[in-house]
Amino acid sequence: MSMKDELILAIESSCDETAVAVLKNNQELLANVISTQIAVHQKYGGVMPEIASRLHVENISIVIKEALEKANISLDDLTCVAVTRGPGLIGALHVGLQAAKTIALTYNKPLVPVHHLCGHIYANEYVSELKFPCLAIVVSGGNTELVLMKKHLDFQIIGETEDDAIGEAFDKVARVVGLPYPGGVSIDREAKNGEHIYHIPHPHVEKKYDYSFSGMKTAVINLVTKERNNHREVKVADLARSFQEDAVNYLLDKALPAVDEFNIKQVVLAGGVSANSYLRSEIVRRLKDKDVEVVIPPLWCTTDNAAMIAKVGHYLYKQGVFADISLGADPTWQIEDFRNFQE
User: Among candidates 59, 51, 50, 46, which has minimal Cα distance to 12?
Assistant: First the structure.
């Protein structure tokens, strides 16, 4: 290992994955270790924050040790420690942050604070370098945002959901029809065997690029209740396909006019819902005749991981964006406020 090598240790613990990665010179991913809690939370139909925090405490040291062993480095070799500061579950974030601060303090390494959603956007750099102006369509269980980037680490929200995130709507619709958590995965799987026979209306939202997924979720609940009250069988696969296509079409119908308005050179998908097969194929189909690059993150990088945090960590390290040991978790950290923190 050359003395000049940049070695970033990244820690991600914002929800139900305890993840640690080691990135060398912003090119070589030496380790990407993830301990997932999905099997535990499935029993409850969603993430239980207190259980998530406890499992992070149990797992964090083991995952760090495994990442260091895979990368064949020691903590002394590190250039800096990057960590997810927010947004996310406060208790879960706190565990990763304490681990990162302990390493930074003990080994005298810079501490780099990373925004979780920036990580999801930068996960696309494992496919292609970001090109600007860039439109990031951020879709996850907790967020639906259209983010305009004119340069690295410059984030402007041009549209967002006024209520539920698209991933949250997927989870709730899945629960209503008895599909297991995580709902997005279940609906995607079922939709492949269904027909689009139900119409799921979406509400009118005044702002051009804003969304409302709560109304779509409520429409599904009402539809299912009505069918059951009339002793009619709800065709789960058909409902899954209908909801998935209506929700994704609504997402893209509103997002894609931004390509022309802002002279976008590149569109990237970001967040857990970017794993949805219909979204991945439909965005490519819709933009195939446009002079714009479409980048879709690899499936391994759509769920929470630390490799994406390391990518952002690299750019922040180059800009000298460091936090002191008093850094606290921020569960509601806005992506636009990220710039303010840097200043």
Answer: 59
- Domains defined along the chain, listed by start: 7-121+302-342 (3.30.420.40), 131-296 (3.30.420.40)
SS3 for 259-319 is HHHCCCCEEEEECHHHHCHHHHHHHHHHHCCCCCEEECCCHHHCCCCCHHHHHHHHHHHHC
Average pLDDT, the chain: 91
| Three-state secondary structure of 81-125 | EEEEEECCCHHHHHHHHHHHHHHHHHHCCCEEEEEHHHHHHHHHH
CB 190 within 8 A of CB 237: yes
Give the 3-state secondary structure of residue 156: strand
Residue 245, both tokens: 């296509």
What sign results for the dihedral spanned by CA atoms 301, 304, 310, 313?
A: positive
Q: Which two tokens stand for residue 114?
A: 């990373």
DSSP-based three-state secondary structure for 210: coil
Helical (H) or strand (E) element with 22: strand 17-24
Find tokens 């698209």 and name the residue: 166
Tell me, what's the pLDDT at 40?
45
pTM: 0.93
pLDDT of residue 341: 52
